[in-house]
Specification:
It is a multi-pass membrane protein. By secondary structure, the chain is mainly alpha-helical. It has 2 domains: 213 residues, Cation efflux protein transmembrane domain (Alpha-lytic protease prodomain-like), CATH 1.20.1510; 84 residues, Alpha-Beta Plaits (2-Layer Sandwich). 69% of the residues lie in helices and 10% in strands. It has a 3-stranded mixed beta sheet with strand order 1-2-3. Helix 8 packs antiparallel against helix 9. The protein starts with 9 loop residues before the first helix and ends with a helix.
């Protein structure tokens, strides 16, 4: 019996992240009030900002799915980049900044923590829930690729909503781990400054990861091309056709999550009739879409040898 393949969508990844953030906020805030730990307040703050960030992603995905119209002939797919940028900006300005401030304040004015064991249990639960949400986004980014290429895939992936959800959940997991380490050190050393130090480390970690997402979203907003290996695949696919002499120019543009615009100029053999050229253009488009499924919009332009010579 063939193994059933489970397809993970960006929407599912973001919604799971959103639900995890809700649970984090409620649980961490309750424990922060009970224990008085600034690490737990930082965790609650981080969860609150993540909740807002995830909410912006959920809203952005919904807005980006609107159908094309006269004003937006290629649809609204790129709108997700705007909401992702706002999401990352929220994380950077609110979560990281306030978390670091609260940690510094507690570091300079240490206070004892009540119910340390309860704090440890909640942090362990937070690691598990954020880790599960992170695993979903990780599997979505990885797709059919092998694990050793994950860093390259992460850098070049245009699944910006999934990538942001991954970073948010990674931040939640790392924040919980750092919080757990600082609380455990506090428990065994009774050094009250470690609570504040843990919160500051959380803030620094969040800021670094948020900056990375801001840059990715900015590149996609400005207009980012497909990765070099994708463009090479498109060129080789087209040049494999006997009727095509050479690919003169290739331009690609991400116009939404998993949606690529391809504009390709080709130089054809001289003995082709008009009917054959029309059939060939359809074949070029079909072959590109088959090899690169995210190429939803494919434009094929013809160049004559004379124009090609002038371009050189």
């Amino acid at each position: 019996m063939p193994e059933k393949k489970i397809y993970i969508t960006s929407e599912k990844v973001v919604k799971v992240s959103f639900l995890v953030d809700i649970s984090d906020v409620l649980l961490n805030l309750l424990i922060a009030i009970i224990s008085g730990s600034v690490v737990m307040f930082s965790q609650a703050l981080q969860g609150g900002a993540d909740l807002l960030a995830s909410g912006l992603l959920v809203f952005g995905i919904k807005k980006s799915k609107r159908l094309p119209d006269h004003k937006h002939p290629f649809g609204y797919g790129r709108e997700i980049y705007f909401w992702t940028f706002l999401s990352a900006l929220t994380t950077f300005l609110i979560t990281a900044g306030v978390s670091f401030y609260l940690g510094l304040k507690r570091f300079l004015d240490p206070q004892p923590i009540d119910n340390v064991n309860l704090v440890i249990i909640v942090l362990l639960v937070s690691i598990l829930t954020n880790g599960y949400a992170m695993s979903l986004s990780f599997r979505r980014l990885l797709g059919k690729n092998i694990y050793k290429n994950i860093f390259k895939i992460f850098l070049h992936s245009a699944f910006i909503a999934t990538k942001t959800a991954f970073v948010l959940d990674l931040m939640g997991t790392l924040a919980s781990i750092l919080g757990l380490i600082s609380i455990l050190l506090y428990k065994f050393s009774n050094n009250q400054k470690l609570d504040g130090l843990g919160a500051m480390l959380i803030g620094i970690t969040l800021a670094i990861l948020a900056i990375f997402i801001l840059k990715s979203a900015k590149d996609l907003l400005v207009g980012q091309s497909a990765p070099p290996d994708t463009e090479d695949k498109i060129k080789s696919t087209v040049e494999a056709l006997s009727e095509v002499k050479k690919v003169i120019d290739l331009r690609t543009l991400h116009i939404g999550t998993g949606t690529l615009l391809v504009d390709i100029e080709v130089n054809l053999q001289n003995d082709l009739t008009t009917d054959k050229i029309e059939i060939l253009i359809d074949k070029i488009q079909a072959d590109i879409i088959k090899q690169v499924p995210e190429a939803k919009e494919v434009r094929v332009e013809l160049e004559t040898p004379k124009v090609e010579a002038l371009l050189k």
